[in-house]
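Case 412 in the screening queue. Each case pairs one protein sequence with one candidate compound; here the compound is adenosine-5'-triphosphate. For every case the pipeline is the same: read the inputs, emit a complex structure as tokens, and attach any notable structural observations.

Predict complex for case 412.
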Amino acid sequence: MALIALDHVSKIYPKGSRPALDDISLDIERGDFVFLVGASGSGKTTLLSLLLREEEATSGEIRVAGNDLRRLPARQIPQYRRSIGFIFQDYKLLANKTVWQNVAFALEVIGTRRSTIKSLVPQVLKTVGLTGKERNFPHELSGGEQQRVAIARAYVNHPQILLADEPTGNLDPTTSLGIMEVLDAINRTGTTIVMATHNEEIVNSMRKRVVELKAGKIMRDEQHGSYDSALFFPDAEVASRAHEAIHGDGTPAAELNLPEGSYTDPTAVTNVDGPDVASALHGAEHGDDGIARLASSVHSGRTGRYGEVFQSVEDTLTWGRGLSLDAMAAAEEASKPADDFETVEPAVEPDAQPAAAEKPAGNAENAGDAESAAADRNETVELSGPLMPPAPPAPPAPAKHDDHAEGEGNEQ
Ligand SMILES: Nc1ncnc2c1ncn2[C@@H]1O[C@H](COP(=O)(O)OP(=O)(O)OP(=O)(O)O)[C@@H](O)[C@H]1O
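Case 412 output:
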């Protein structure tokens, strides 16, 4: 039997005007890597929430690793969730705990022996390429490093299933590549991965199974699938949104001074990109070289139409290839009249981080409810099976390094 099996599943939220999921049937086998794609609101997060038993299906049957989720008693839900790792777009790390403590906490709440924790935490941090960052707090890490901590926390008990909701959504292409390398390596150890994403470059390079949702229904299920985000984010709409985000007005895309090729007639968006995308999609043998293709795509600077049009938005972010504050201050200064000697303050603090990344996860900081907090964040599983892969591939290098790591962290 499939590891994950959905049979005619529908989900209607109490205030929903239409089903968030509408008669979905889907089997996912052990060891699969599945991309869930589809427009905003198509039901991707709802599907992941059902698998996690955060939400209950309105009708239909869901079985995960032999558990019939309709019949799972409430008291067994925390234990069930421990068999599943979950990774969020905004990391959901505990802001007041170090890297080491964030990962160790996942083991502490299930009563893992201190000596075991001391042995497991460095192993998993090494796997995700974070050796040397053990004593850093989340705000002292880049976005990519924070997501690696989240992956380490989700993976420390070697879950059978890893669910990821837009895990690269806040990251630049190069950092996303590093995250995908880690997820691919974890998948190759036998962990089943279901990942919701809008990132066409990742989907098209990795050529894993693609399940596409549209208005709560499965429109497509392909073994070595692709994704053209332009189908879901018509160029004119994306361009307008990007322009509005940057300049704060609603100028129609057609009137914007956009780079050649970034705007096309919205009625003609069903075309796949030019020869580059076509060859990326169909040029190589289907095999286990998705990461190599992704690396080649990232290094060539090809980010797909969705990536291209949001490029300037990405450049304003304060992590990844963030805007240089010096350059920004210099530009402001240069644009001022010569007789204006006012000091120019930078718009953001040099070490500013996205607010979401600093937020603790749900009620996870409530010390009196550590168990349910951990369950909410789903980072632990039963201590069965090998905790580490027999021969994991070399972990990718961290997205960036700093000089203030205090060495290998046996801080417990
Ligand atoms: N708690 C809720 N109550 C009512 N409606 C909801 C709730 N959560 C989601 N929905 C609705 O269900 C539909 C599917 O939402 P869902 O979040 O699953 O989409 P998604 O594909 O994950 O979107 P995105 O890519 O924007 O994250 C949407 O119409 C959404 O408005």
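Case 412 observations:
- The beta strands are 4-11, 21-28, 33-37, 59-64, 67-68, 84-87, 161-165, 192-196, 209-214, 217-222.
- The radius of gyration is 22 Å.
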